[in-house]
Amino acid sequence: MASLSTLTKKGTALFLAYDQGLEHGPSEFNDANVDPRFIIHIAKEGKYTAMIFQKGIAEKYQKEIRLSKIPLIIKLNGKTNLVKGEPISRQLCSVNEALKLGAKAVGYTIYLGSQHESRMFNEFEQIEEEAHAKKIPVIAWIYPRGKAVEHKPLGELMTYAARTGLELGADIVKLQYNGSLKDLKWAVKSAGRTALVLSGGPKTDETSFLSVVKDAKAAGCLGVAVGRNIWKSSDPISLSKKVWNNLQ
Ligand code: FBP
Predict the structure, then answer these.
(1) pTM of the model
(2) Nearest CA, atom 12, ligand 1
(3) Angstrom distance (rounded) from CA 188 to CA 181
(4) Predicted confidence (pLDDT) per residue in 54-105, tens digit
C-alpha cells in the first residue's frame, strides 16, 4: 500500500484544489485568484498538506511550487463543462510525466454511473498500476453523474463511490458530501482501508463550509480537499486556519 505520510500532517490531509480553470472556466476566478501564484501562496501560508494542479500549471509554475515545499498532486484527467451529455474525463498526463514534474501523488476523476464509466475504470487501472509501481498514492475523485444515477438517493451514491474506490485500488477517494453525517460514517466504513477526503463544493457561507469540515473529522475522513471555498474567500489564510482548527 502506498504511504500517505507525504500528503498528511499528523495523519490529516488538507489539500488545496485548483483544477477548476479547466473544469469550469475562468468565470470562477477574480483578479487575484486567476493567478496560480496566489494559490501557491495560500497553500504555503495556510499550511496545506498538498496542492492539486493540472500538468500545465505544474510545469509553468514549477519554480514557485518547488520553493513553496508544498507537496504537489497532479490531476491526470480533466474535461471542460462545455460538452454536454454522458460525462467522460480522459487522461491528459501520464504518471511518468507527473513524476518528472515533481508530483508526490496523482489524481483521476471517475464519473460513477456514466455510460462511459468502464472506460474511466480502465484508464484508472493503468494509472493505479503505474503509480503504485513507483510507490506514489493514487487519489480517485469519484463523482456519481449521468442519466442512470439522476434519481438515485445521494447518500446511497456517496457510499457507493467510497466503496468503488476501495474495490478499484484507490488510496484516497475524494467525495462530494451529501450533508448527512450518518451516511458519511457509513461511507468511511464502506471504504475500508481506502481513506476519504471531502470536496468543498461551490462557494458558500463560512459556517456551512466549516460544518462540512467538522463532519469530515467526525466521520473519520482523512481530511478535506477544497478549492473554491478557500480561494474565493475574502481572507483565505484566516479561513484556512479555521479549517485546521476544525480538523484537529
Ligand atoms: P471545490 O472544493 O472547489 O468544489 O473543488 C473540488 C473539485 O473536485 C475540483 O477538484 C474540481 O475542479 C471540481 O470540484 C469539480 O466540480 P464539479 O464536477 O462538481 O463541477
Answers:
(1) 0.97
(2) 20
(3) 10
(4) 999 999 999 999 999 999 999 999 999 999 999 999 999 999 999 999 999 9
Among all chains, which residue has been given the C-alpha cell 484516497?
172
d(CA 50, CA 35): 18
Ligand 1 pocket (Cβ < 6 Å) reads 17, 19-20, 23-24, 141, 143, 199-201, 226-229
* Residue 188 φ/ψ region, left for φ over 0, alpha for ψ in the -120 to 50 degree band, beta for the rest: alpha
* Residue located via cell numbers 468502464: 118
64, burial (CB in 10 Å: exposed 0-12, middle 13-18, buried 19+): middle
* pLDDT tens string 127-180: 999 999 999 999 999 999 999 999 999 999 999 999 999 999 999 999 999 999
Class of domain 5-247 as given by CATH: alpha beta
Q: Looking at the chain, how many residues does it have?
A: 248
To 10 degrees, what angle do helices 154-168 and 181-190 make?
A: 20
Give the Å distance between the CA of 230 and the centre of ligand 1.
12
Q: Phi and psi for 63 in degrees, rounded to 5?
A: -60, -50
